[in-house]
Amino acid sequence: MKFGVHAGLQNTTTDELQGLWRRIEDHGFEWISIWDHFYAADATGGAVCLEAVGTHTALALATERVRCGSLVYSVGYRHPAVLANAMATIDHLAGGRVTLGLGAGWHQGEYDAYGIPFPAAGVRLRQLEEAIQCVRGLLTDDVTTFEGEHFRLQDARCEPKPVQDRLPIWIGGGGEKVTLRIAARHADGWNVPFIPPDDYAHKVGVLDAHCEREGRDPREVTRAVNVGLAWHEGDLEAQFGAIANFVRPGVLTGSVQEVVDRVGAYGDAGAEWVILAMRAPFDVDGLDRFAAEVLPQFA
Fold first, then answer.
1. What is d(CA 201, CA 280) in angstroms, rounded to the nearest whole number?
2. Contact 60, 68 (CB under 8 A)
3. DSSP labels for 216-258?
4. What is d(CA 99, CA 67) in angstroms, rounded to the nearest whole number?
5. Per-residue pLDDT at 38
6. What percent of the chain lies above the pLDDT cut of 70?
């Protein structure tokens, strides 16, 4: 079992984030990720939110050891060629520690505010499947040509290539018919947020079945889950506000032993990574407690 932290970019500052990142790394976590939003992801319509690529770059420069991930960049407003070039450069800044997460996008409010098309889910998922192929080609092949419904590349190059021979690309989302099929067909990893262990186990089974149909070894796809952490009454509402009840099924809470047991249940369900999803105001005391009392149980 590996552990990480997904630190939201809303209602915070670059100074606060850099201090948090150093704290996370010092505690021995192996992953820190950013999200991709322009507006706060809490159903309030708030617009205080740092931009993802810039913050991802800062994360690469502020850390030395952790994987520098994204959960997840939206292909609806991140052209795959532009994103591939950005990730290749950030991988150089990170010394080969970048993991790229891609998703179909969901926060319609920010699309509408900026006049960005927000098509039906089926269209967005087709965009996602095309985008991951474009990014993979650009990050791996000398020259990439792709002719799709939404994206087109003609003898396209991305140089310099990442430091890593194969920069990992994860798919984010829990849709069983399409999203998990895309992950099985194209991705190096898969992440889903805020679902309980039993639901996670079911989706792992669906992913495995898709892998078998695609002729792929399921062990080639890394499995991760994002969970909340709420040691005390009110912690969840303080971080997640209006969506606290939505995320509640995927939250670690209770005594230390109850949290340890819950983490173990995710491991039994197939999770290789458990990633704590934190939002400002960041509960650094709760993070410290998790690092001191839970992490050692899985060493």
1. 30
2. yes
3. --GGGSEEEEEEEEE-STTHHHHHHGGGHHHHGGGEEESSHHH
4. 7
5. 95
6. 100
The mean pLDDT of the chain is 97
Task: Please report, as a single letter, which amino acid is at residue 58.
Answer: A
Q: Residue 91 corresponds to which amino acid? A: D
Residue 154 burial by Cβ neighbours in a 10 Å radius (0-12, 13-18, 19+):
exposed
What tokens does 70 get?
């994204």
- Count CA within 13 A, CB hemisphere, residue 4: 25
Q: What is the pLDDT of residues 32-44, one digit of tens each?
A: 999 999 999 988 8
Model pLDDT, residue 44 = 87
CB 189, CB 224: distance < 8 Å: yes
C-alpha torsion 146→147→153→156, nearest 10: 40
What's the fold here for domain 2-298? TIM Barrel (3.20.20)
Sign of CA dihedral 106, 283, 223, 63: positive
Paired tokens of 110: 């920010």
Dihedral (CA of 241, 245, 249, 254) sign: positive
